[in-house]
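Let's practice the habit of predicting before peeking. Look at the sequence and jot down your guess about where helices and strands might fall. Then scroll down.
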Amino acid sequence: MVKNYKEGSSQKLLPMVSVCTPTFNRRPFIPIMFECFRNQDYPKNRIEWIIVDDGTDKIKDLIENSKIPQIRYFELDKKLSLGAKRNYMHDQVKGDIIVYMDDDDYYPPERISHAVERLESNPKALCAGASEIYIFFKHIQKMIQCGPYGPNHATAGTFAFRKELLKITRYEDHAAVAEERAFLKDYTIPFVQLDPMKAILVFSHEHNTFDKRKMLDNPHPDFFKESPKTVDMFIRTKIENRVKSFFMKEIDALLDAYEPGLPKMKPDVLKQIKEIEKEREDMIREEMAKQQAMGAITLQRPGEQPIQLSNQEVVEIVNQQQEQIKQLTNKTKEADVIITTLQKQLIEKTKEIINLKKQIKAKEEQGGTSTMTRIPIVELSKSDPEIIINLST
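Done guessing? Here is the structure:
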């Protein structure tokens, strides 16, 4: 938690924070959104809350009844794409740090304070967020971990960034979903990761703009996997019991009775989702066609039936062969060293033999006699030979 300095003290004040929330026909969620804000442990006198509402069922009445003085509420008559709406929010901010809090997710009490602390302790980072997030699927009672995807990646619902970032980037005005990539300039913006337990908990529900249950159809094992974490590990305090009850017990009946919040009320979003899904399907088909064009890889061992290999099996075999080659290369180098040493030893012993022969010849010329002479050779190892030369006359 960020240290709470009293306003007017000689010590430096905490940064002014602009919380930003875009909303469209989410009336059932708004009271709980208010609760998540009230529970924030960051000083309220250092926060403004900008809510931009372009829905057909405006929530002005709920805003007024909330008695939350930090709210600055903007009604828009024309529906904007999510990208354009986020840009509009940015034009209204007065704070030094901008923190996103979406209208249908759970945010822990340290959501703001943790984000501010991470940015303050990493001065080179312009943006913070969580690339690893958790989604609770109530219909199967499972917690799913999504990500992490990379050190400079995060989902927009977890963003917190310095206002100065807006001098170099903005959202694409036409973006209705998956708006993060362009804003983060293909994930090249200087970034710091947040603790996912202090950032957000997403609940899959019927009014999700993107039906998160589709993520369960073809999950990627590296980025989408079941987690042992529980809802109680995120929503921990007694003051949040009402929030927990809403997401775990009340939400389904409330959404069933609220037609304005159905995804069909957002045709621009549905259109873009279909375009993205088609693009992904085309990429998958193209990749499959490439693999088929390359043909199947078959392994044929002597005396055995041919075996068709998967890409993973091919990679494993190649890795094994590379390791074997490495081991053989090392053994070859060791053998080269031994051969070089033996060659040097042989040259030295040859020289000794020549000298001995000269000595023997000299003795013979002097009338001396010789018998068998043993020439010792210093052994390099147990396997090195001892050479015996018969020089008898």
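How did you do? The two ends are 100 Å apart (CA to CA).
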